[in-house]
Amino acid sequence: MSSKKSLVSYLRVSTRKQGASGLGLEAQRAAVAEYAAREGFKVVAEYVEVESGKKAARPELAKALAHCRAARATLVVAKLDRLARNVAFLSRLMEAGLDFTALDNIHANRFTLHVLAAVAEQEARATSERTTVALAAARRRGVRLGSSRPGHWRGLEAKRLAGSRKGTKRAAELRTAAAHAHNSMAVETALELRKAGMSWAEVAAELNARGLVTRRGNGWSKSSIFTAVEATGAAVVMAAPLAAGLLMAGGV
Q1: Which residues of the chain register pLDDT less than 70?
Q2: Are 236 and 194 in contact (CB under 8 A)?
Q3: Fewer CB within 10 Å of terminal CB in the chain, N or C?
């Protein structure tokens, strides 16, 4: 897999007339291409939206963000207002934990958004700090809080053990769900490629070419993508034991 930093390009125009004519899109596309070439980065995907920046519901942006998560790529836009003109919307993007770059303000990244949202965050932080101080003062006075209170678990040992087991099970479920969420785009793409007649080795190569990575950030192999698809219980895999047999024998 390429060692170049992966970029996912998001282009947006506000009207269908602009979208049909390409007006505005070509300038954005050229800016992204120039930036990628200058910095030695690789654009692994491009998503084009024809929608007002005032609307939060944007399917192509959702796809671009999903691709960024799947490829651990950076979202790049020619101008910050191509994402949105709403600070709250941009703050939610920051909270999603994804990196992005706006070429008209190269410093308008997650850190900048954090500054823009600082006033609201500061109030929440102050509330939390006041609560922490109050609890610490209570402890200094000898107050025992929560489950540390003497006798709190007396007669409830079985409940405590059941809670511990439930927590362990839930943690495993969350890890599995997170893995499925990260792999969803790769799995969906893999199924489409398999239907088109590609071998698992060819599927893995194509996923890597599109910049998609495993949850740990590694490139896909034929065995890892087969395992990821199989884990979803996809009918196309479960109904094809021959493919699984060939994989085990190294024949696909």
Answers
A1: 1-3, 15-23, 52-57, 82-96, 108-124, 143-153, 156-157, 160, 234-252
A2: yes
A3: N
Rg for the chain, CA atoms, rounded:
24
Give the 3-state secondary structure of residue 198: coil
6-13 vs 42-50, strand pairing mode: parallel
Tell me what pLDDT residue 241 has. 41
Amino acid at 6: S
Question: Residue 156 and residue 174: Cα distance in Å, rounded?
Answer: 27
Ordered structural domains, the chain, with CATH: 6-116 (3.40.50.1390), 123-148 (no CATH), 157-248 (no CATH)
DSSP state of 149: S
Asked whether the beta carbons of 233 and 241 are under 8 A apart, the reply is no
Distance, in Å, from the CA atom of 118 to the CA atom of 129, rounded to the nearest integer, reads 16
Integer Cα distance of 73 and 42 in angstroms: 10
Q: Which residues pair with 10 in a beta bridge?
A: 47
Q: Helix or strand or coil: residue 213?
A: coil
* Interatomic CA distance for residues 157 and 84, integer angstroms: 53
Q: What predicted TM-score, i.e. pTM, was given to this entire model?
A: 0.57
